Amino acid sequence: MRIVRDPTALFGVLVLALLVSAALFAPLIAPLDPNKQDLAARLLPPFYAEGGSSQHLLGTDQLGRDVLSRIVHGARISLTIPLVSVTLAGVFGTAVGLLAGYRGGKTDAFIMRIVDTLFSFPGLLLALTILAVVGPSFWTLAIVLSLRIWMVFARMTRGLVLSAREAEYVEAAALVGASPVRIMLRHIAPNLTAPLLTLAVLESAHVILSEAALSFLGLGIQPPQTSWGLDVAIGRQYVFSAPWLIIFPGLAIAVAVLGINLLAGWLRVAADPQESAKRFAAAADAPSAWSG
User: Fold this and answer.
1) 8 Å CB contact between 192 and 154
2) What is the pTM of this model?
């Protein structure tokens, strides 16, 4: 696989694989209940610091809950929300972009006018307004975050369709009597996979940051559920007395976003034949660290 020849992309994949594995096997990796309180062990530092405990490798919070367990179990929500949000936004935005790009004319103008209007509205303000009115929950948060980004998918899909609909294979399909729906789904949509997949991966990083921001403001994930953003919000009151409450969940967010961005960068290059050839040719010509 070409990805093994790109160290940065490979690092990103390994980071994401590690985080996803931690989320999937959370009870095995961190068997302690993330919500179990032990006031006798409150604000214990990490194991490497003076006063730390081997039972709580990353320390405990103000209620004596294990920080490692909360981060590992919080990965389930912090990684599931971007998956759900990006999937919803991708499906809806791609469908809208396909319709606008292929039909063109007044249909295109009407749809894109709506898209441009919504795109100009501050996304975080929209999310805050909806969550304040409806109330925060997992599904509300996932849907609200998808409403922030579906316009990006619609814009990109429309642009790609405008280029693809003039292709010879599309004109040939129309000449043999293929319906517009068949042309869009059978002949155009498959060619949009690579750029839209790259966009989906990139938007996942934005959703992780947005979820963390909303949870930090108290309008995201609510206890007893936990997420990285919620843990940062809880730990901000102890930023000087117990900095590990912010450092470790914040580090989890940063590492996840870094891994996603590295993977998205590789996908972008791999989807462009010219850029891909240049990049991998340069990697092949680079001198090995083991060569004399």
Assistant:
1) no
2) 0.86
